[in-house]
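Researcher: Good morning. I'm working through a list of sequences from a screen, and I'd like to move beyond sequence-only analysis. For each chain I'm collecting a predicted structure so we can compare shapes side by side. This is the next one on the list. No need for commentary yet; just the structure.
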Amino acid sequence: MNINTDLVNLIVTVVFSFLVGLEVKTYRIQFHGDSAKYFFGSARTFTFVGLIGYIFYKIDIIMYLAILIGLTLLYALFYYQKLLNHKQSILLYLVMLIVYSLGPLSVKFPIWMISLIFVLVVFVLNAKKSIHKITTDFNPYEFEILSKMLLLSAVILPLLPNKDVIPYIPISPFKIWLAVVVVSGISYGGYIAQKYFFPHKGYFLTGIIGGIYSSTATTVVLSRKAKKTGRNPVIEGAIIVATSIMYIRLIVVAAIFNFEIAKSIALPFAIFSLIGIVVSLFFLYSKKNRDESHDIIDANPLELGTAFIFAALFIVMMLLTQYITNEFGSMGLKIFSFIAGFTDIDPFVLSLLTGKFSVSFKEIVVAVMVAAGSNNLLKATYALWFGGWRNTLKSALWVALLGVFTITWALML
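Model: Good morning. Structure tokens for this chain:
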């Protein structure tokens, strides 16, 4: 049996208008108590607003707009009374506009569109405290940095040529900047999660999220904390888990730029990550476990200066890799990858993932693994240097062992 489309659209409009009205009522009770006089309409009012919007949209668009103007003037009178009582929010008017548009939306779009809008309305209304906390706690300077990065990503990136136009560099400007955007975006996501969504949640969570942001920086911060507080198994576990997450991060980055290499490193990196996570859990559930508040890594990875430095390092690493592979072959690449691991490995790994070199596919996979392994040796050194032998020796040994296993697996290839 075929159901009339207009009837379906009418029912959808009325149902979702009523549901939004109920949600507004819940919002009023939850956040404003008995302040009903400052609220515009009830569930029935919103139902009628949605119904009227549908009816007059079907009759004539001019009448639809005229009714909208009338509702706006009516709300203006209500809002004037609110101003007299020092109330300034126009939230309910905005919700009413959404409800008034449900009729046309039901006609022009599939039902999933209205469902999604309803879910967003519910989410935004109930997230009042969370949104307020974010807007008050979030550093305005970081909004500025994020906006600049989005501008460069959305405006500059599409304008860059996707051809090899720079002499001696076997990659296009588009791919160079795309690498910067992807790595910076992953790092920034971990940084925001750590600083604003999971603050003061314990050292172990710092290690997990910090591994997404920068396992090296996380190791330094946690090691310094261990030196201040004394030996803490949870901090040692956090140092190990940060390196474990680094393996997963490298798999994700590789999958974005070179899926074949990602498949080749997925098994060993997943094994090393799992070993590290299991070991870190032993430290976490140690009987001597102590967990307290922790320092946040307070270095924004999305600053433009950092992004441009990363791009420059990316180009330098690609030029060096190309020169070394041409002059010294696979052995030279292995030695260079080991040395590169004692720096920021992201530019080097990305140069391997995106460049065209005179070495085999397997040798590139080996170089990625060797760099990751030697970077673990660097972090083990940092853990001992910044944390002290008595406080971070065990975690440093495990991180170093993961590095040795990684390099050994690579050389066995």
